[in-house]
Amino acid sequence: EYIAHSPKDIALHIRREVKRHEFEEIIEEKLKNTLALIDKALKDAELEANQIDRVLLVGGSTRSPIVWDLVTQHMGQEPHIEIDPDAAVALGAAVQAGIIAGEEIDAILVDVTPMSLGIAAAEISFAGQLIPDQFAPLIRRNTTIPVQHSKVFSTIYPGQDKIHIQVYQGEEETASDNVLLGDFFIEDLKPNREMELTDVTVNFSLDINAILDVTVIERKTGKEVRKQLKASRQRLSSQDIASSQAKIAAVYEQDEIDEDDETGEIDDLSIEIDPGTKALLERAIKILSKENLSADLASKISVTVEKIKDSLAEDDSEQTELYCDELIDWLIEAEE
């Protein structure tokens, strides 16, 4: 795939001289992100810029004068130039390759995971409300690898014999706001607790090659399930997504304006949404953008959201709960 083609569909080569100020404008967002990452690294290390002894620039892009100037200003000191930015990358890669190969290396190179890894889980609020789509990290960001962590999770309702494991990478509290690495189902669960609930142990093992091995162990039988994670990339049309998301977004309006057709009067209607219902609606927004979601299922989700909206406006908590249960069923179907 090429940027430009000739009328005969031949790939064209484009050459253009870019002035420095033009180049700096093009990479402005990258420069801002660089400074944000510096601040993030300092925060993680619980240090201030003035506590850093030396600043080293690594990578060919740091040869740009704008990078040098911004880092100098941000850190309060000029970077050291005794290390070749390009050679530093190559040497670091060589050392890492030696460690992986089992060679004796006269240096310590510690690798960490850049983002947290975890699964989507439901939580029970103090008010007894079920809050779905919560991110439960098993391996935190900046954890040295290789690493292995386990956590015990339980089914939600009595007799539940299937759970949906969704593995995410990121830092957002709402699971679906993070990057989905993959998902799979665990079926034929056997209860091991009162009220026919089932405990499972979810184990994450991240090796030095950044390969994540997810194992789910049923506590009662000891049955293990280990799956390869896959994710598709096909999406709904932009029109379908915009239409459905607009309907759901209306639920969040604290003041909804209803115009009377006959009198032209405007009524101010305040809708209060509990955290559980709000989280469910946020989850619906994400699902509507899910790959391979059928138009029929998207319509069912949108219609149910409208029902929730109406019941909230009428302050009918029982009906709202029924519609929320209906929406959960549609969302589970969409995630299968």
Walk me through the structure.
This protein is of the alpha+beta class. It has three domains: about 20-85, Nucleotidyltransferase, domain 5 (2-Layer Sandwich); about 115-225, Substrate Binding Domain Of DNAk, Chain A, domain 1; about 240-335, no CATH class. It contains eight helices and twelve strands. The strands form four sheets. The protein has a four-stranded antiparallel beta sheet. A hairpin with a 5-residue loop joins strand 9 (about 210-220) and strand 10. The longest helix is centred in the C-terminal third of the chain and has 19 residues, at about 295-315. The protein is globular and about 65 Å long. The two termini are about 35 Å apart. About 20% of the residues are buried. Mean pLDDT is about 75; it is low at about 230-240 and about 255-270.
Q: How would you sum up the major sheet? A: 4 strands, antiparallel
Our Rg estimate from Cα atoms comes to 26 Å
CATH superfamily of the largest domain: Substrate Binding Domain Of DNAk, Chain A, domain 1
How much strand? Answer: 15-25%
β-strand number: 12
Shape: globular
Topology:
Blueprint: H1 20-26, H2 28-45, H3 65-75, H4 85-101, E1 111-112, E2 117-124, E3 130-139, E4 144-145, E5 147-154, E6 162-169, E7 179-187, E8 199-206, E9 212-218, E10 224-226, H5 238-249, E11 255-259, E12 266-270, H6 275-287, H7 295-313, H8 317-335
Antiparallel strand pairs: 1-4, 2-3, 2-6, 5-8, 6-7, 8-9, 9-10, 11-12
